[in-house]
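Hey L., structure's done. Input below.
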Amino acid sequence: MTDFETQVRDAFPELESIEDEDLRERVVEAWMLGLERGGWQDISDIPYAWNIDEVTNVDHVRGVTRIAIDSATQQREFHGAGPDLDTIVAACLLHDVGKCYEYPPFVADDLLDDPDPRYVSEEIPHSISGYALAHEVGCPLAVQRAIPHFLGEVPTRTLEAELVKSANSASSNAITQSAMGITLQEWVEEYSQTS
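Output:
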């Protein structure tokens, strides 16, 4: 039996930034469910993108989390805003958990078991299935609403949701530039399945 809990905790040391212990456990639970249902052997097997092998999803999720924490600090110290750090960290750590469901068709050799067809499909964008996982494990609505990161998925965006979205874009731009020599927008225009 694969120890997904240890994998998740080891992969994301940023979990310890979440002060609310219950929320921290819900984040871990969402990842464990996604990994199990997706049939994965190891959390590090999930790629950042189906056509970029140089960066793992874990690397990207950690990058997004770190960028968002830094941005929240600047918003507090420089602008006097009050974003909720637990919400930001939890949403960042969960913003791409849906790749557990979306990416199995692209990396079949990295799977331990057959993916559960009730959940796994490349037809459902990972931001939507990530939202569903966060909802299923009981994450607060503030976290759930900050997970979808494509335009139009959530009608009213909070400061925390905007931080997650902008941190995701910053990390993604760095990754596509370093891996492929193109901007995120160019990658989306050329390869995105959700555009």
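The first strand starts at residue 47 and ends at 49. The longest helix spans residues 57-79.

-- N.
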